[in-house]
Amino acid sequence: MSSDDVNELYASFSVYTSGKKLFDVRAVKSVNSIDCLHGLRALSVLYIIWGHRVGIALSTGLVNLTAFREWYLKLTSSVFNTHQVAVDTFLFMGALLLVWSMIPNLDRFGPLTDQHNYQSQENCQKWWWGVFLHIQNYMNPEEFCLDQSWYLAVDFQLFLVSPLLIYPAWKYGWKYVWVLPGLTIASAVYIFIISYQLEIRCIVRSPQGLLDLFRYVYYPTHARMGPWFMGMFLGFVLHKTRGTKIRINPIVKFIMWILCLSTFAAITLGAMHLFKQGSYNVTTQLQNSFYLSLYRNGWSVALCWLVFACHNGTGGIIRWFLTLPQWQPIGRMCLSMYLVGWMYQIIAIGNYKLPIYFEEIEWIHMYWGDIFGTIILATVLYLACETPFMRIESYLYKKYNKQKTEA
Length: 407
Hints:
Radius of gyration: 22 Å
Structural class: mainly alpha
Number of domains: 2
Oligomer: single chain
Largest sheet: none
Number of strands: 0
């Protein structure tokens, strides 16, 4: 190993070097960069942290639950209450970037409260091995060790099966790429059937109903795979058009934006009647099953146009906002923020000495405290663990490619 190799490996553990790259906010203009994803990553992880704040507080217990329900049912509050789709945005982006980065290589080379703490400790003593195997969403969906690890399991399982779809699509073209939307539809059909048969609704009224929702709709990979496969589909489209700007008829562009924004609005605002108090006996099971089966997949379809349009330079003010370089630091350490944010919030809420009350302004204030504390902890985790391993992996990959080329 040469001295340059040793220096490069040592530099992987340099907080100064990694910190400079983390907080570098210079705009990068490259055909190999999808700039709008920085903004999507950052906004999604901020959305998730808000959802965790609400979920942990509710599970701990609110004294004035009626006040929270009144706020929750406001039309203006619905934007804050559909945070679940932020996770689907990450699945969508993960698949998109997997295809975006993998296809060129194929082209080139060929073939805490006490109750929270106690329950978490008990589950981890029993199922700690499931965390490392990424199978908890199927093996023990009711007793997760580290609640946020369900996403890692889904992401890892989809990552494993993706090459089985990427290679045939790369080898044989579009006739195999169209399998991806078909799998998305299959996922939606499964959710509709299982939710209809088990009478799973958007608003849960019993512990068993909540258990069924998580076990059959929220945690299983086959129920969450729709956004991933739509991300893969867009990845192929962007790869085929890499380096070229697609000319789109202004009327078509206008219609697509209307459909895209209408889909986002319908998902975040248009289903409020399903969540209203008393709606359990007013809305039908058919309505609930349709919404559960379509809202995640509809969100990912709308994301396809948003990312495609922004990457193609036709996103207007939306593209400007999502490509702001200031999003880049949060976008880079969004995984670290996701992992530490939940634990930070459990510790913060677990230290309360008084009963928890809901007050809108106060919760927004606490939310920004969550963001600040999470960013500090995530920065430490990112610089101490994530960056060194990424740089070592990059070094080994470059060495492998160099040896393969020389051979």
